[in-house]
UniProtKB/TrEMBL annotation:
Transmembrane segments: 12-35, 56-75, 95-114, 126-145
Source organism phylogeny: Bacteria, Bacillati, Actinomycetota, Actinomycetes, Kitasatosporales
Keywords: Membrane, Transmembrane, Transmembrane helix
Highest taxon of source: Bacteria
Species, as recorded: Streptomyces haneummycinicus
Protein name (record): Copper resistance protein D domain-containing protein
């Protein structure tokens, strides 16, 4: 495979991973959970939503996060990004903002899981909203970055 094809594959994996993560959050929040609340008995709803959340969290940790980190790091290296360049106007600052927001999103998602496991429903819901809104922000920032 030539260099152009290789980097196209790396970008595709990065974008597809982000789409699956954000799409999964949207599908759970807007489709699965409302239907579970409406159609399932309270005990079944709690069991189902907890299992769905655990599965999504496991996929995030085992697939999504490693793919995003590996492909993001590879694209940054390919572009010649350095710690110093993250402070430069344009690409550097936009990438820095994307990375900072991505970190907030991952912390909020982890906090959501911890809060949910601790039966802190209001906190879990607030952290889920922060994670989803932040994820949309990460995608918005990503669209401002040129292809590497």
């Amino acid at each position: 495979m030539d260099t152009v094809g290789w980097w196209s594959l790396v970008r595709f994996a990065h974008v597809a991973g982000a789409a699956l993560w954000v799409g999964g959050q949207l599908a759970l929040s807007l489709v699965v959970l409302p239907l579970a609340r409406r159609l399932l008995a309270p005990e079944a709803k709690d069991s189902f939503t907890a299992a769905a959340g655990r599965r999504f969290g496991m996929l995030t940790g085992a697939v999504f996060l490693p793919v995003q980190l590996a492909t993001g790091w590879a694209m940054a290296q390919h572009r010649g990004v350095t710690w110093a360049s993250l402070a430069e106007p344009g690409y550097g600052r936009t990438l820095a903002a994307k990375l900072a927001l991505f970190t907030v999103v991952m912390l909020a998602a982890a906090g959501h899981g911890i809060a949910h496991a601790g039966h802190r429903t209001d906190l879990a819901r607030a952290l889920a909203v922060v994670s989803l809104a932040g994820s949309l922000g990460v995608v918005l920032l990503a669209t401002a970055l040129p292809a590497t």
